[in-house]
Amino acid sequence: MKKFANYLILIFTLLPLQACKSMETSQYQADIEGEILVGHYIYGHEVNSFKPCGHKYLFWVLGSEEVLDLLAEKYSNYVANPYDEVYIKIAGNYLNKASDGFAVDYDGQVQVEKVFLMRKKSNTDCR
Q1: In the chain, what are the domain boundaries?
Q2: Where are the extended beta strands (E) located within the chain?
Q3: Backbone phi, then psi, for 108, in 5-degree steps?
Q4: pTM for this structure?
């Protein structure tokens, strides 16, 4: 009986701690807005694409003017040739396939909310 009481005390002690951890995680996710996505990004004339790691699909990139300007500016710092791929980590949401414009040639669209990281592409990016 004493063992059972010890288990109950342990459970009721750890349960509130777990609830606090869950709350911290959800607050962090709410601040970001969107999924954390990693993959390769290409920017150029009539090209603004994202290919997520582990997928064959290619997405047209959408975002606020501020986000798109930041992507273009950072991209030019990391590539040697037009249309080279770079590795990026972003917060964003996948959207349906476009019905017009350059985006119609892609599998879908991704709305980028925030750029966390951009760097040169490497062989170990998506492992």
Answers
A1: 1-32, 35-120
A2: 35-44, 47-52, 59-63, 86-95, 108-120
A3: 180, -165
A4: 0.74
Pairing, β 47-52 against β 86-95: unpaired
Q: How far is CA 101 from CA 46, 49, 59, 80, 97, in A?
A: 10, 14, 13, 28, 11
CATH fold of 35-120 reads OB fold (Dihydrolipoamide Acetyltransferase, E2P) (2.40.50)
User: What's the pLDDT tens digit per position in 30-87?
Assistant: 455 789 999 999 999 999 999 999 999 999 999 999 999 999 999 999 999 999 999 9
The per-residue pLDDT for 127 is 87
Question: What token pair was written down for 47?
Answer: 């090209």
